[in-house]
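hiii, so i know i said id send this last week but things got crazy w the move. better late than never?? heres the sequnce for the chain we talked about at the cafe, plus the structure i predicted for it. fair warning i was half asleep when i ran it
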Amino acid sequence: MANQAELESWPAFAEGDLASHWHEMFHRRIIQHNVRVVSLYYKRIHGARLAQLLGLEWPRLEQEISSMVSDSSVYAKIDRPKDIVRFAAAKTSEAILTDWASDIDKLLHLVETTTHLIHKENMTAA
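okay and structure toks below
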């Protein structure tokens, strides 16, 4: 709160209509930043919980998420009946298969490296 008082003491925030404009713009940018941070850590979250985490009313938060999706600054889908916000895009079957193949390749590489180290240890111990 001390930072807020210091910020609001600046001349740009102390003059009539311009002050309310900058105050609203600053508040929107904070909300957008918080939504971006949440989208990095959550694939899906209940709308009520998201509103609680960000300290906002759900209609305002929904409006901001919608504008961010329109601007392509974040990917999100809102399921109103279930009250769920999804931040992760659904993967195609090809993308899932590619990820799986990559994981298998990494696993086989680890097994090969481990086998090589075991053989090396056996040769030096013998």
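btw Helices lie at 2-8, 16-41, 47-54, 58-70, 93-125. thought thatd interest u
miss u guys!!
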